[in-house]
Amino acid sequence: MDAPERRAAVALLFDQLAPGYDRGGVPWFGPIGARLVELTAPRPGGRALDVGAGRGAATFPLVDAVGPTGHVTAVDLSPAMAMHLRSEAELRGASLDVVVGEATPDTVPAGTLDALTASLVLFFDPEPAETLTTWVSLLRPGGRIGLSTFGPTDPAWTAAEAVLMAYAPQQLLDARTSGRVGPFATTDSMASLLESCGATDVDSHDEPLEVTLPDAEAWRAWTMTLGLRQLWAAVPDGELPRAMTGIATALERNRGDDDQLHLTQQVRYTTGTRP
């Protein structure tokens, strides 16, 4: 699959996910997006871009951060995601531009942004270094860039995902494959990637995010609202009971004294500045 084909596949995947995306009742993309904006530290009155905006997890914190004198553009490959984001912006009374496509100088002139965020996005790109270099070029000198990617999950969560990964098709467009290898594998490799693309004052670190759920069925219902939905779709109907048994056994290790499952994902935040 070449780069244009992969980008088209990403757009199609998120078109399919858009209606229920992150609507599982579990705080997930929202806390990650808000923390990313906090670490990127946009200033009131600034011009900001949110790449791969989805349903607005980082977009709306950006709008709040730059305030009424600032300006936010949100860009996403998925027309369906963009449609839902526009609707949400109208409901909130938030002023922003929503663009279907990629973050390039055709979307935003180079050297004009004060801040750029990309939350859980870059690992879907077939050419992450080239794309990241372009993103850095969109910033003015002193502009800030913030990326979030995935670090490790706790052993129980990892084992549950491994049950699903056994059914995964080749070239899966998911962070469980591309998002935890290569330049995305460690904080050091993420820092080196951003530095190689022209940023300075780079910091990359992991922060834990805990998800609390009652049981494996709730984990399935929640993950069906995320990119993991495509993994569930790959499980043959006849294999689903066996898969659920394996997942329940894995997750049960993390049942707490409150009778809830406590699952921890390390979220990797990488920030830098255009010199």
Automatic annotation (TrEMBL):
<dbReference type="InterPro" id="IPR029063">
    <property type="entry name" value="SAM-dependent_MTases_sf"/>
</dbReference>
<dbReference type="Pfam" id="PF13649">
    <property type="entry name" value="Methyltransf_25"/>
</dbReference>
<protein>
    <recommendedName>
        <fullName>Methyltransferase domain-containing protein</fullName>
    </recommendedName>
</protein>
<keyword id="KW-0808">Transferase</keyword>
<dbReference type="InterPro" id="IPR041698">
    <property type="entry name" value="Methyltransf_25"/>
</dbReference>
<feature type="domain" description="Methyltransferase">
    <location>
        <begin position="49"/>
        <end position="143"/>
    </location>
</feature>
